[in-house]
Amino acid sequence: MTVLEHKLNAEQKSASDMIQYVTVVIGGQLFGLPISQVHDVFVPESVTRVPMSAPEVQGVLNLRGRIVTAINMRRRLHLPPLQEGQMMAVGIEYKHESYGLVIDTVGEVLTLSSASAEPNPSNLDRRWAEISGGVHRLDGRLMVILDVDRLLGAMFTEPMAAA
Amino acid sequence: MDDLLREFITETNESLDVVDVELVKFEQEPNNATILDNIFRLVHTIKGTCGFLGLPRLEGIAHAAETLMGKFRDGAPVTQEAVSLILTSIDQIKDILGELEAAEGEEPQGDDSELIGQLEEMSAKADAAMKGGAAAEEAPVADAEPEAPEEDASAEQALERPLRPGEVSLDELERAFRETEVEVDVVEPEVPEAEEIVDEVEEPEPAPVAVKAEAKVAAKPQAKAAGEGGEKKASGGGVSNQSIRVAVDTLEHLMTMVSELVLTRNQLLEIVRRHEDSEFKVPLQRLSNVTAELQEGVMATRMQPIGNAWQKLPRIVRDLSQELEKPIELEMIGADTELDRQVLEMIKDPLTHMVRNSADHGLERPDERRAAGKAEKGTITLAAYHEGGHIIIEVRDDGKGIDVERVKAKVVERGLASEAEVDKMTDAQIHKFIFAAGFSTAAKVTSVSGRGVGMDVVRNNIELIGGTVDLRSTQGKGSSFIIKIPLTLAIVSTLIVEAGGDRFAIPQLSVVELVRVQTNSEHRIERIKDTPVLRLRNKLLPLVHLSQLLGIYEGENADEAIDADNGFIVVMQVGSQTFGVVVDGVFHTEEIVVKPMSTMLRNLGMFSGNTILGDGSVIMIIDPNGIAGAMASHASSAVTENQEDEHEDLQSRAVSGQSSISLLLFRAGAPEPKAVPLSLVTRLEEFEVSKIERSNGRDLVQYRGSLMPLVYLNEGDCHKTEGTQPMLVFSDAGRSMGLVVDEIVDIVEDRMNIEVGSERPGILGSAVVKERATEIIDLGYYLPQAFEDWFMRKEMDIEALTKKVLFVDDSSFFRNMLSPVLKAAGYDVTTCTGPHQAFDLLENGDKFHAIVSDIEMPEINGFEFCESLRRDPRFRNIPILALSSMVTPASIERGRQAGFDDYVAKFDRPGLIAALKDVFSGEMGAAA
Questions:
Q1: What's the structural domain count of chain A?
Q2: Which fold would CATH assign to domain B492-643?
Q3: Residues B834-875 pLDDT 10s
Q4: Where are the alpha helices (DSSP H) in B303-451?
Q5: In angstroms, what separates the C-alpha of B606 from chain A's closest C-alpha?
Q6: How far apart are CA B66 and CA B15, in angstroms?
Q7: Is residue A76 classed as helix, strand or coil in its secondary structure?
Q8: What's the gap between Cα B20 and its chain centre?
Q9: A 71-100: CB under 8 A from B
Q10: In this complex, which of A60, A159, A163 lies closest to B610 when CB atoms are compared?
């Protein structure tokens, strides 16, 4: 954890459970990732396909000497592929390995109180509910909290069970 | 646990391993003082250190053992018992050490008085035995005496007790040490390697240099310092100023960092390559060289002599030799051959297992050896040497070799292959079965081996590190296992290829050669039906496109992935399997650092890892074993597809060689070749034309005391007018038929794909055999021509016993071929073209005593057919036999689960008859 993160964590505690979110847009929907989990934001370039992998695995790429597994969030959320424009990726770490979530665009950083988060609406698409950690009501739009552990954890267990 | 104790445990374990080896040597050469001194010194060191660290139990045993050895040194005769006893003590010390380590430094409670008592008793015996012989020994001891007092004094100081009786003074040890100094390398095998560590590490890291210098300074006073602690240092003293101990973790970390450096270097080189006049060029070249050297150096620190993995073997062989009562000599060649320590660790166990195997069922008993005219003492040879980028390890024995017949019997018994298949296999192919799971030919289970777990585990372990194991054996002469493993796992030389628009790295270890195919070149891709093959030096190589294997082919029809006119074929060998992988392009070879796949992708068997190439992109590394596996399943899936085709009567069950069947090629009536499966032919005969007689309007010959009718392929043909007349004889139950042919052309092993069906009676269809369109004849048509009642007569004979059998097979070829066989055996056969028809018949109320069903059928396969029959109470008890061209343990098991009573290979006619007889006799037995 960097000094910054430590500071942020400290701040979060002091500011009565304020959480900072990096917002991203996937298929027009606003999502938020806890900033403590986001390592970097990059443009996924020269992604190598991984044959026979799960469909949502876009491939692997070299990010400053590390091999990162890129996960296409549109495919993960069962959305049509982005027609044009540059995709972006959010680098996260999960169980000591690097993953990149490929999304449409990255937005601003929002500081929100965890108290204002609401549980998933019961009629939310099951595939979405699976990876959503709640919803924040913002001015004019809703932000879905991405639960990284559940997002990636689900992808782990599936192939393992099948194997 | 403090550092001192930890170091003590590590060092003592090493010393004990050496003692083990030396003791076995000593037993064989009891007069070799050098060896004895060596052992003595090591045990003494252990004893001394134990005293120093306050470990009384260890000290007690070490002391008693040392005393006994002291007697040997003084000239007592060396007996096997005594050596065994010392070995037992060493084992005890090892056990205590193990517990000590587990208990974080607490010496375990326990009583060793019995062992010590035995040792003392043995010492007393030795004492008695050498009375008189000792006088000569005393002189040198006395010579050394003058030095003693001073040294002794300090020793006492460190020990805080006087020397015990039977203990040896330090000077004597020093003398022993001086005498054996030249042997130091043997004693501590890690020494040369450690030396290298210092040498190599020197450049990049200044710290060890300081250590080295320090060590130099420190070494001298330490060597002088007396007392057990100092003596311990001095034991390695000759080299202690040139080497340091480095934790493996440190080396591993260094290795990882160097790997990263190599990758970065490659990337930089790639960039500079693109910019012609870059000022970075020269310094980068320099960096590149330094990196290469650094990489080599760090690699060298990981290298260890293979002797380290062999260390325990002399002891094991000695114990086995006693247990099995076979004198065995273990010969070790090339123990200093170096390989990566990671690899070393992984082959230790397989090697031990193989040596055990050789000793137990490789070598014969002494009396058998004598009878065979061999020396009574069997020899097991371990040899290691470098070859290319690999290390070859050979485990060889001069025993009885592998009993091919016994393996064959076992193979058939286990259902790994049918008798007919086994008969056609070469000895080498038979030998391969040794590596099949759960295979052991040891007649009885001994404590050593024969439990049926073993060689398959050995093979798996070796394959895990990208190696292969091969077996050569000559009956009566001995057998030898040849293991080929890569020198290191961290850096792999790979071939970069392109398939389906992506690049992949194939480890060169498994690449045999590259073949470029072009329409007019020597090599060309041919097709048998849709299966592409390559003819390469008289061998037929199954081909598959890499993009097809990986499921990334983007075209419409995957079969068209292979462009017959242009392509590269990577010929790969994995174990005994050789196949061609077609790729779109071949780039270059590159040394790559394997990085593990992320956990999410680790379940993909096709890849062993990934890495970053010089140009910065990530590339997937192909796992040859995964490809080989996929190759096999690809082939079998092709079979199921093809069998949906009506004329795909005979299908190979795998693209590999064993799927082919023997065909007899002949000519009759017309110039085009004809063929019949060899397994149906009883004999090939030639008769003098004059022997052919004509009676009752047909040609006959006298054959084996009865008249054999001759049958012509085409109506109106006639036999030759002079010379001899070749014919194919088909016999069954005492009746024979001669099929007159013009010429017997050849017997070929080929796959029989009937591509064009035939409307003509007597011809099943045409297939490509040996690249020529060949007519496959329908024996079922000709047999009744010889005896009209060929298929009927038995029904008359044994009418009472006649059973109705339903034969379900989608392939007309088999229906035609096997129904005569069944009829001939006295069964009333009804044939069905598939399960649907069979269900209809059964629903109509037709009663059958047994059902014989094919497995590979379209729509409903045999397993499903059987399962659905078993679900119906009416058919729950009817015997059902499976008939399949795919006979593997797995398919047999699948068949059993589906409810089949027996599982028979398609070409195994006698097997089918026997199986039917079995189910009926069982049924009758149950009824009676």
A1: 1
A2: OB fold (Dihydrolipoamide Acetyltransferase, E2P) (2.40.50)
A3: 888 888 888 887 788 888 888 878 777 888 888 888 888 778
A4: 307-310, 313-324, 341-357, 366-371, 404-414, 419-424, 427-432
A5: 8
A6: 14
A7: helix
A8: 30
A9: 95, 97-99
A10: A60
Gap from A102 CA to chain B (nearest CA, Å): 16
pTM: 0.45
What pLDDT shows up at residue B795?
Answer: 41
ipTM, 2 decimals?
0.81
Beta carbons within 8 Å of A130's beta carbon, 6+ residues apart: A150, A154
Let me know if the fold of B492-643 is the same as that of B657-786.
Answer: yes
- In angstroms, rounded to a whole number, what is the distance separating the alpha carbons of residues B582 and B560? 12
How far apart are the C-alpha atoms of B903 and B918, rounded to whole Å? 12
Structure confidence at residue B821 (pLDDT): 72
Q: List the single best residue of B581, B618, B622 to mutate versus A (max A Cβ within 10 A).
A: B618
Nearest-CA residue of chain A relative to B601? A53
pLDDT mean over B793-806? 56
pLDDT at B504: 93
Say which CATH number the domain at A129 has.
2.40.50.180
Please give the interface size between A and B, counted as residue pairs whose CB atoms are below 8 Å apart. 74
* CATH number 3.30.1120.10 given to B793-927: no
Q: What is the pLDDT of residues B899-915, one digit of tens each?
A: 888 888 776 777 787 78
Q: pLDDT digit string (tens) for B737-793?
A: 888 888 888 777 776 666 666 667 777 777 777 777 788 887 777 777 777 655 544
Pairing verdict, β A97-103 and A66-72: parallel
CATH code: domain B657-786 is 2.40.50.180
pLDDT of B215 higher than 50: no
Query: Is the CB of residue B226 less than 8 Å from the CB of residue B276?
Result: no
- Which H or E run includes B150? helix B148-159
Minimum distance, in Å, between the CA of residue B595 and any CA atom of chain A: 8
DSSP state of B358: I
Closest partner residue to A51 (CB to CB) among B552, B599, B616 is: B552
Q: With the CA atoms of B444, B445, B450 and B451 taken in that order, what torsion angle do they form, in degrees rounded to the nearest 10?
A: 140
